[in-house]
Amino acid sequence: MKFKVNNNEVFASTGGRPFDKKKPLIIFVHGSGLTHMTWVLQTRYFAFHGYNALAVDLPGHGLSSGESLKSIEEMADWVKDVIDAVGHKKASLVGHSQGCLVTVECTSRYPDKIKTLSLMGGAGAIPMNPELLSLAENNDPKAVDLMMDWAHGPAGHFGGHPVPGLYHINTGTMLAKSRTIQNTLGVDFRACDNYKNGFDAAKKIKCPTLSILATDDKMCPVKEGKKLASLIDGSQVDIIDNCGHMMLLEEADRVLTVLKKFITTNYPPLSS
Amino acid sequence: MSDKKKELKPNTYKFDTLSLHAGYQPHKNAGSRQVPIYQTTSYLFDDVDHAAALFNLERGGHIYSRISNPTVGVLEERVASLEGGTAALATSSGMSAIFLTVMTLCEAGDHLVVSSQLYGGTVNLFRLTLPKFGIKCTFVKPRDTEGFKKAIQKNTKGIFGELVGNPGNEIMNMPEIAKIAHDAGIPLMVDATYQTPYLCKPFEHGADIVIHSLTKWMAGHGSSMAGILVEGGKFDWMQNDKFPTMTKPYEGYHGLSFAEEFGPTAFTMKARAEGMRDFGPCLSPQNAWNVLQGIETLSVRMKKHCSNAEEMVKYLSNHESVAWVSHPSVPDHPDHKLAKKLLPNGRGSMIAFGIKGGKDAGVAFINNVKLASHLANVGDTRTLVIHPASGTHSQMDEATLKFAGLSHDMIRLSVGIEDIDDIKNDFEIGFRAARKPRLVSNQ
Q1: Are B56 and A178 a contacting pair at CB < 8 A?
Q2: 3-state class (DSSP) for residue B109
Q3: What pTM value is reported for the model?
Q4: What is the ipTM of this complex?
């Protein structure tokens, strides 16, 4: 579906079901340089089971217009604006990687609006490798290739995707190259590198929170994810073996199973 | 110790490694080092919710082997990885892969621009069968790049061609034809059977969908029929209103828009969800496994195929019984320069040559070679020969034969990986026999 936030058109996948104001809202926020499509193996389930599942394209990404937002704080405010724009008072947030920084900041800023928070491959800070940052800011496609290499665990490099026939390293590469790299990945990496408020923001979070971490995650290692989770009262942690940072694709079923249990328990669907 | 900073390099697996490993994780399959053959029709659901989730494309997995199968899935992922594609769908043959591609793209009333130099079966599909479904085609000679542009109509939904035409070895200027297609907002579909991804990756030159008859060099041993379509993932289906079945809500899946939902894998998802469901040209797991065995040695075999082919080109070019030789490695081949650009790892192992003495000599040659096999296939490890005008393209009339660039003296040679001296010795027997009828007629 398309709607406007701050006069810019926003695209959000609804998981193949029409948006219905009566249903509780879940917003999925993608990682650096990526799009709503990274969530396809999670959103459709919720959309078919009593929720509005909105996988948004951040401004300037995927099918959304406008320019990429330059800071995590701006993105956090933008997510709050999305909740308002679709006419809801509250939402559950799900973030991946950079999306975790955004959703942590959003939840700390607008605690009354957020019902639950789910973090996939999250950390309190994501400092960028300077060379990778420079490549992305200089529009070098090697930045995407490096990101896809580091973002997949050893098992993920072989493939074996749950969706038959899909080779996810190439799919991720194509998503990250679908718009101008310096305007998406470059801006996002700089925003991640600049963001320093993650640990303080985490201390303010009181809603039910879930962290899904992966043992082979090089970009947001388990140690960093646990550190963030330890600052959030009552936070649940689930760790996936033999999996890298792209857990939404590498272990899509496992992620969905854990997420489904957490969200339906803490923010029940509209029963049909 | 050096102070020089190490340059960052992606360590994703390279071609030869992907040929052996892509798409498969042993630890998820009882530790089986070899890909298991899942000889089953169907798959248990955990519960009703799980069944519904699979049918609604809410999660990945298998329902019924007509739609997908774990062994076939490994093959699909492996070929997608080798081509640099996002996704792939394997079928029972190369022809069914072409048919499924067209039926996923087109509706009745649509039009395609098609290269005229194609395998005979493909010509008949586009010329005679697709019109029965309301899909019309305009044929353009593969070297007539501007002709592809001129042939595009309002209702044209794509351009299709064989990168190196069968059997005349004419090469499409893929980068330029891709630009023509993209300027018109339509995809370029390329049958790259002759090349395999070892010789050429069409996505790097602008193709959007790549099709293979896996029966040929990919499987390589002449044992199994199989085909595949691979998606490049770059084509924007939402850029215009030409592809409503990709972009509009689809009744068959609760109003799903494939392009919105699956983006760079939308075409493959639609081909599987709709095409395999409704037409059902599925690949058997046993054949998928056989093809996987072939792909494991693809680069090793292709090197030998190409080196043997270049030896045969030299031999034939200097032979008194040969009127002409067509192979992209020949310097005076019209597409020699283009072949160097598009096929840097070798120009393939298909040779067309004209035998002096015309049709009668061709028939005598074919009937007398002993090592080379006379059959309707290419891309076997063994050397194969055929006389297209009386074999693969025999269903064409004179005018169509001429338009397809075929002559009665043409022999199509698929060079195998036998010892090169044995192939040459065998051809000497064929050429000796071919000269005899001429001697008789001269007396």
Answers
A1: no
A2: coil
A3: 0.94
A4: 0.94
